[in-house]
Design goal:
With 159 residues, the protein is mainly alpha-helical. Helices cover 55% and strands 6% of the residues. It has a two-stranded antiparallel ribbon. Strands 3-4 form a two-stranded parallel ribbon. The chain is globular. It starts with 7 loop residues before the first helix and ends in a 6-residue tail after the last helix.
Length: 159
């Protein structure tokens, strides 16, 4: 899969046994980091959505591991596209569902006890994710109409 024109169909063929009207089964449990990095730069928001889903799928592990910095960079890029474009695809998130996912990523970074002591505190990483995306909760409220759901998912006093 050295061809840079990656498609959803090629990713599905590579990683899934995908019978019609039946549950999909992974062909492997490893996402190769070198290829993942290439796919994460795709111009196709559907590919980005599919990759976002695979990164979060517990059936897969990334080898070698994706750094937290690379993950944050990808999430920023993907969510910014979703917020700006509000896609209506099969694999990509609408601005509304991206808003929900964004809050979940924020919470995960905030609460992640696995982040080593030598790195900035998770709270700083979560805050940086929001700052670097250029989105405040007020912006998310306007862009995604998530006011009540954001309020219930995160404590506004943190900012």
């Amino acid at each position: 899969m050295n061809d840079q024109r990656i498609t959803i169909d090629r990713l599905i063929e590579r990683f899934w046994i995908a019978p019609e009207n039946a549950e999909w089964t992974p062909k492997t449990n490893v996402l190769p980091l070198e290829e993942l990095r290439l796919w994460m730069t795709s111009d196709d928001i559907e590919v980005l959505g599919f990759i976002y889903g695979m990164i979060g799928n517990a059936q897969f592990r990334i080898e070698p591991a994706l750094s937290l910095e690379e993950y944050i960079h990808f999430v920023k890029h993907y969510f910014a596209r979703c917020f700006q474009e509000n896609p209506d695809g099969v694999w990509s998130d609408s601005s509304y569902s991206a808003g929900w996912d964004f809050v979940q990523v924020f919470i995960k970074l905030w609460d992640d006890e696995a982040v080593p002591e030598s790195t900035p505190r998770p709270q700083k990483l979560a805050r940086r994710l929001i700052q670097e995306c250029g989105f405040t909760f007020a912006h998310l409220y306007c862009a995604c109409q998530l006011g009540a759901s954001i309020g219930t998912k995160a404590n506004p006093g943190l900012f």
